[in-house]
Structures are given as structure tokens and as C-alpha cells.
Design goal:
Shape: rod-shaped
Number of strands: 0
Distance between the termini: 130 Å
Order of helices and strands: H
Structural class: mainly alpha
Largest sheet: none
Number of helices: 1
Strand content: under 5%
């Protein structure tokens, strides 16, 4: 009977030790998950800012290209007009 009690007490102590180890592992896993979540959130913020900046730069580029195309069209019309005037005076 004494052996059985000793066995039960040792088993309980082993279970308590294992439970403490598991509790510590769960706490560490939770801490790591929190760190990963914070890192992920920061990454999303950085990517969002970068995408916004790229969209703004693309819009500025499109405006500049549009302005350049308009100027080239006016220049082409001016040259064509000049050429027509030269042909008309010959």
C-alpha cells in the first residue's frame, strides 16, 4: 500500500512538473505570437505606405505624360502649319 501511495505521489509530482513546463511553453508561444502579430502589423503599415506612395508617383507620372503629349501635339501642329505656310509661299 505504501508503494502505491509513493507511486501516486511521484506520478502527481511528475504531472505537476510537466504541467508547469507546458504552461511555460504556452506562455512563450503566446509571447512569440504577439511579437509576430506586431511585426506583421508593422509590415502591413510599411507596405500600405509604399503602395500609396507608388500610386501617387504613378498619378504624377500620368499627369506629366499627358502634359507632354499635349505639348508635343501643339508642337506637331505648329510644325505642320509652318510647313503648310512654306508650301503655300512657293
Amino acid at each position: 500500500m505504501e508503494r502505491a501511495i509513493e507511486f501516486l505521489l511521484k506520478s502527481q509530482a511528475d504531472h505537476d512538473t510537466r504541467l508547469d513546463e507546458l504552461t511555460a511553453q504556452v506562455k512563450e508561444t503566446s509571447r512569440q505570437l504577439q511579437t509576430y502579430a506586431e511585426t506583421q502589423s508593422q509590415f502591413i503599415g510599411i507596405v500600405t505606405t509604399a503602395m500609396t506612395n507608388l500610386a501617387d508617383a504613378q498619378a504624377a507620372t500620368e499627369r506629366t505624360v499627358g502634359e507632354t503629349n499635349a505639348r508635343l501635339s501643339r508642337l506637331a501642329a505648329l510644325i505642320e502649319h509652318h510647313i503648310e505656310d512654306e508650301h503655300a509661299h512657293k
